[in-house]
Amino acid sequence: MSFTARTAAKAPPLLSVVALCSGGLVAALTQTMVIPIQSALPAYLSTSPGNAAWVVTITLLAAAVSMVVTGRLADMFGKQRVLVISAAILTVGSAVCALSDTLVPMLAGRALQGLAMGFIPVGISLLREITPPAMQSTSVAAMSATLGVGGAIGLPLSAWIADVADWHVLFWVSTAVAVVVLVLMMLAVPHVEDAAGGRFDYGGALGLAVGLVAFLVGVSKATTWGWGDARTISAIAGGLVVLVVWGVYELRVPHSLVDLRATAKLPVLMTNLAAVAIGFGMMAQSIVVPQLLQLPSETGYGLGQSILHAGLWMAPAGLMMLVFAPVSSSLMTKYGAKIALIIGAVVLAAGYALGTFLTDAPWQLLVVSLVASSGVGIGYAAMPTLILDATPRHEAGAAVGLNALSRSTGTTLAAAIMGTVLTSSTTAFGPVQVPSESAFTLCFVIGAGAALLGALLAGLVPTVRPGSTPEEPRSRVGEEHLEPTHVAR
């Protein structure tokens, strides 16, 4: 569908882009909002520290599953409809958390907040339906940046609210902004008749959920349980086995959740592999820099910042991703998304290289974070563009969702590996053990290595001319050809 055919849409394209980016920012913000109060959650919820840790973990797991499932539903029933539902889920989840004083309802609310993370890949895939060609690259870049911006803003905002008010206010604030997003989705984002139809693959969704959850639980808990613990090994191995079986099933079943044959094509496959590496690199700074900022200065290398001040030092890095959205758009226009992705990965690696020696003051870590986040901003904008250029429109939601899942897998691996590195090399500080200075340096080196691997993988992405991807619906075993229509209203 050409942009001319969409002129019947009532909302101006710029307003729609602002609405979608606002929704992405709010969805991402809810993922990190509990981190400043994580140590106090056992007391707040009258539970053990181990149980309270699931308040963070369950959101991660729900988000991982929802990114692909929500994308497929959007391809089937229409992206704007699914965005409205995602915003409604975010509103309900936030309200449930705000009303919670015990663990079980809090976990239910946090799981709903995680399910709403499917909003971001669906929003990215919709942008090409509702924006003119001149706006598309910048719009996709800005929407991609909300993942980092929301997370960065969430830390100091949540720390400040928790410092001046009751902790429930955190979730009442998220409920209020989620309501605003819901209204914006209904009024400012045009409905495009882009539904491709088909039947939903319930078996595929269940298999993906079981496999992903088992694998990610094993990885995320490895630092706590130990990599050699039977629980860690069984969860990771069991999850991988389920995912292999799921893959065989997906290749055989009609109306599959994910078109694995399409994802195996080099442009998509190499982009998703690069996403894992760059997602790993992005998360490394989010773990290392806050800890360095908050360690007591008496250690000789810690900077003695409070949680609130550490969040404020980190916030500009998240905003830098948004600032670099037009830069990334210019790079993609001039050199192509592949080159932009390589540049982003190299800049990210340069940020970590600076981190190996710029750690003596908060402003130095700010410089490290700004450089690294600039690379992330460029790379995160380029990845969905590469996916969209290589994917038919009627599969865009699921394809971008799978790319977002790849990034999420990278961040989960980074959290586990960085946690292991920081706990395997410690030094005594009074009665406790804290990560050694060499452990932090090693984390920066690993982050740089992951970013450079991402650059190498990006270099293997074949160049696909935008608009050259066939638009015929996927042909699968027993699946009829469906001709989607695209009429804005």
Notable characteristics:
Growth Hormone, Chain: A; disordered C terminus; 2% strand; two-stranded antiparallel ribbon; mainly alpha
Biggest sheet, spatial arrangement of strands: 1-2
- Count of helical regions: 20
| Distance between the ends | 13 Å
**Would you state the CATH class of the largest domain?**
Mainly Alpha
Topology (elements, then pairings):
Blueprint: H1 13-32, H2 41-45, H3 49-52, H4 54-77, H5 79-98, H6 103-115, H7 119-130, H8 133-164, H9 168-187, H10 202-220, H11 222-225, H12 230-252, H13 260-263, H14 266-294, H15 307-323, H16 325-335, H17 337-355, H18 362-389, H19 396-424, E1 426-429, E2 432-435, H20 437-459
Antiparallel strand pairs: 1-2
Helix pairs in contact: 1-7, 1-8, 1-9, 4-5, 4-6, 4-7, 4-10, 4-19, 5-6, 5-7, 5-9, 7-8, 7-19, 8-15, 8-16, 8-18, 10-12, 14-15, 14-17, 14-18, 14-19, 14-20, 15-18, 16-17, 16-18, 17-18, 17-20, 18-19, 19-20
